[in-house]
Write a structure and sequence with these properties.
The protein is mainly β. The protein is built from seven helices and 43 strands.
């Protein structure tokens, strides 16, 4: 194997040397409008294999010139103020001068491009997966406190939790570890995070560092493996500037954001530089968000939001919803030659005093800190020969460390009851090492193949300290140090391939497969012990080896197939069927400690099987110069879903801990479910006297069924609609947005969920809501080097008191926001 790797890198280096000696050519892009008039100031970005290579701006004659272009095929993205973005393919075929004519249509409709759905740069019409893409300008317009807020208005998605840090995505009814979150294509998920009570912390990614967000709805298991069951979110961060032909060019930018509701502040400052051989970006951000206020202060919230004990003050302040933090980033990119680059980056995220909105009173929970450190490197080389179009090799090391503290306080009633005070602090430390190798092949003019391998390993250790007493000031306190999870690691190695075959100009077929091997190993760990159970109960539960160490292995084989058919120049029909899976993680396999339910104890289960699904998507898309729309129907079937349930022995007798009498719970593969529905979205710009008026919106419908219990599936938002209108002047210097979010009441719920609150239920159907948002702004650009923008907004315009569905904390009330961007390119 070692000799094979040496030969591979030798061939790679020789091919790099060969392309560096290729003849240099000139590319001219002639840009005009539909009337044949030249468009000056249009920006052209040249990409190769999805990697940004060069950029240029058109002159007064509408011509953008890029010199010293190597002989290969490129993709050119063209954008100009007041015109729809356009993408064109261009082949530099040996001529010393290559010209490309581009006609831009006036309006707002752009060709959406993403890299997540197919692991390469494709437009929305070239993929069978439904995709939503938000660029930096759209994120600024939405005036979000945290990345998770964007999921409130995208088709097929909603959000979980509230506050400035803990908002997470829910896609097609699933959240937590059933949604895979990537940062620049690398996993943010880790295998220590609990699926039922927690999830991926999007707050670990600085909002100010985000360039775009790509959301793929549906299975992504073939390309990304475990966790990509309901969808895949790829957060793409700001990169270095592109390569420059001559000299060294510096730049800088400053982004600020303020939200009046919680007195929230965020600022990010960056310095950039680029030359022919090297480029860099260094940035620092700081943020501080206080407790937010819910809508219509002074009204009664206790029944609506199920909070008590001072969680919401008389003026509507939601206690324990604050967060403070900062982020440091440094990126350096070396240009080996015209087709190869080497990138290194470091990301340091620090968040402290993170509250859990409304979780205060008898039981208070918060995160004293949640930190992330990440080192990564990537090598890209493209156009190696006429078959091998790209080789990308990346690796990263990531450390996530957080402290979750909860405090239980029951006041004394003397002389009969001395009171209860218990402070529990759990610190988890998860270190992830991963690498990814991807090759892109052009096998003839009609066949594109992506193949590669990936590996990651999560190493975890944690510790728990519990302080018990009658009251916080008691002179006598009992301190215990335990571990809920033994020291353990989960490792995954996988191989994948995805093929795209163009039968003709109208029909394209796609298909792929993936093989994964997982090994989860726990070690004998001081402080980790099994509860007091009988030998027969231990054997029945399968936990006999938990304390002494266990080795759990499982494999997964997944595949998908799809087709895209262009009916005519306006309509495109697509469909795909795929398999998805999620392997049981360290928490589900090994966690053994007091449960979240009073007087309960949860134990691990090493016999868990992976969750699996069969996912079907069909879409119809329409696109013209004045309207774009899509409609998607999906049907997803899942089996072996994990759920934590009361444990019973072979005779059906409930299992209790000897001595304490605590009921034993265990995670098991017991559920089967079906989730189906549709998603539609549209955008239609109209030319009016002062600019373009663009009605837009989306609608999503979900229906979920627990087919094991023959009852409705809970935590499903039935019908969600987002409609709005946007206005831009012809120069795209001014804009105005008005949006309405509508969620209908969910009555289709299980009987246990509909039960009264005092019986552990929801107390009735899940309420719907209508929320209005408004924003506007101004963009100033000079010589395409100096940019300034200001965004003003009002969220929850009418200060409505409501909560996002299946979120047990109230949503933010009205907030006035202001964001600015100052940039020197």
């Amino acid at each position: 194997m070692y000799k094979g790797l040496k030969l591979f890198f030798l061939v790679l280096c020789l091919s790099m040397a060969a392309v560096s000696q290729a003849p240099r050519q000139r590319l001219e892009i002639h840009i005009k409008d539909t009337n044949g008039m030249a468009i000056p100031g249009a920006e052209v970005t040249l990409t190769l294999g999805g990697v940004g290579m060069r950029s240029a701006v058109s002159n007064d004659a509408g011509v953008a010139v890029i010199d010293n272009v190597a002989d290969t095929d490129y993709r050119a993205s063209v954008s100009a103020k007041g015109f729809a973005d356009t993408i064109r393919d261009v082949s530099v075929n040996g001529s010393l001068l290559v010209t490309l004519d581009v006609v831009l249509s006036p309006g707002e409709i752009a060709e959406t491009v993403n890299v997540t759905a197919e692991r390469r740069q494709v437009s929305s019409e070239e993929t069978t997966a439904p995709v939503s893409v938000l660029d930096r300008e759209q994120i600024d317009r939405k005036a979000v406190n945290t990345i998770g807020d964007v999921f409130r208005s995208l088709p097929g998605t909603s959000s979980v939790n509230e506050g400035g840090f803990q908002v997470r995505p829910r896609i097609r009814g699933f959240d937590s570890n059933r949604v895979l979150v990537l940062v620049d294509g690398e996993r943010l998920n880790n295998s220590r995070t609990a699926t039922a009570q927690s999830g991926v912390e999007l707050g670990l990614v600085d909002t100010g560092s985000v360039e775009s967000i790509e959301v793929v709805r549906g299975s992504g298991s073939v390309l990304y493996g475990t966790d990509a069951m309901a969808g895949t979110v790829n957060i793409i961060t700001r990169d270095t500037p592109l390569r420059r032909d001559a000299g060294f060019h510096f730049g800088a930018d400053l982004d600020t954001f303020y939200s009046s509701n919680e007195n929230g502040r965020r600022g990010t400052a960056s310095v950039t530089g680029a030359s022919k051989y090297f480029a860099f970006r260094v940035s620092q951000s700081l943020e501080r968000f206080g407790n937010y206020k819910t809508g219509r202060p002074g009204t009664v919230f206790l029944n609506d939001f199920r909070t008590a004990g001072g969680a919401i003050t008389n003026d509507g302040e939601v206690q324990n919803s604050q967060t403070h933090g900062g982020n440091t980033r440094a990126i350096g990119r070396f240009f080996v030659n015209d087709k190869s680059s080497l990138k290194f980056s470091y990301d340091r995220r620090r968040e402290s005093n993170i509250g859990s909105a409304g979780l205060v009173g008898t039981f208070t929970g918060f995160f004293p800190f949640s930190d992330r450190d990440k080192f990564s490197g990537r090598y890209d080389t493209v156009a190696i020969n006429k078959y091998l179009q790209r080789v990308s090799v990346s690796g990263f090391y990531q450390k996530q460390q957080r402290d979750f503290t909860n405090i239980l306080t029951v006041p004394p009633v003397l002389p009969f009851f001395p009171g209860i005070y218990q402070r529990s602090e759990t610190i988890t430390n998860t270190r992830t090492t991963g690498f990814d190798v991807q090759t892109d092949w052009l096998l003839g003019k009609r066949n594109n193949l992506i193949a590669g391998a990936s590996y990651f390993r999560d190493n975890n250790n944690d510790r728990r300290t519990v302080i018990s007493a009658s009251t916080p000031t008691s002179a006598t306190q009992r301190i215990t140090n335990t571990k809920s999870v033994p020291d353990a690691h989960l490792a995954n190695i996988a191989a994948f391939a995805q093929d795209e075959f163009r039968v003709n100009n109208r029909l394209m077929l796609t298909g792929g497969f993936r093989f994964d091997n997982f090994k989860t190993v726990s070690a004998p760990t001081t402080g980790f012990a099994l509860p007091n159970l009988t030998p027969s109960q231990v054997a029945f539960l399968g936990i006999g080896g938990l304390a002494s160490g266990m080795n759990v292995t499982n494999n997964a084989v997944t595949g998908d197939a799809g087709a895209i058919y262009k009916i005519d120049r306006h309509f495109t029909l697509s469909g795909r069927v795929g398999r998805s899976f999620r392997t049981p993680n360290i928490f589900e396999l090994f966690f053994s400690d007091s449960g979240s339910i009073a007087n309960s104890f949860q134990v691990g289960n090493s016999r868990l099987k992976p969750e699996t699904g069969t996912n079907v998507d069909t879409s119809l898309k329409f696109k013209s110069e004045h309207f774009v729309g899509s409609f998607t129907f999906f049907h997803n079937s899942y089996k072996n879903l994990l759920a934590t349930v009361p444990a019973a022995d072979a005779a059906g007798t409930p299992i209790f801990i000897t001595g304490s009498g605590a009921r034993v719970y265990q995670t098991q593969n017991i559920d089967r479910a079906t989730i189906q529905g549709f998603e539609g979205e549209f955008e239609a710009p109209f030319k009016i006297h002062l600019g373009y008026l663009t009605p837009n919106g989306n609608v999503s419908y979900l229906r979920g069924d627990d087919t094991a219990k023959h009852e409705p599936l809970n935590f499903i938002s039935p019908l969600r609609t987002n409609v709005g209108v946007r206005w831009n002047n012809f120069g795209k210097a001014y804009f105005f947005d008005y949006n309405v979010r509508i969620a209908t009441t969910q009555r289709r719920l299980s009987n246990s969920f509909l039960a009264p609150v005092n019986q552990g239920g929801n107390g009735g159907p899940e309420p719907g809501y209508v929320v209005h948002d408004m924003s506007g702004g101004y963009y100033f650009r000079k010589n395409d080097r100096y940019n300034f923008s200001i965004n003003l907004g009002v969220s929850n315009l009418f200060n409505r008191a409501y909560s996002e569905q299946f979120t047990f904390a109230p949503a933010r009330g009205r907030s006035f926001t202001i964001g600015t961007t100052w940039q020197i390119k």
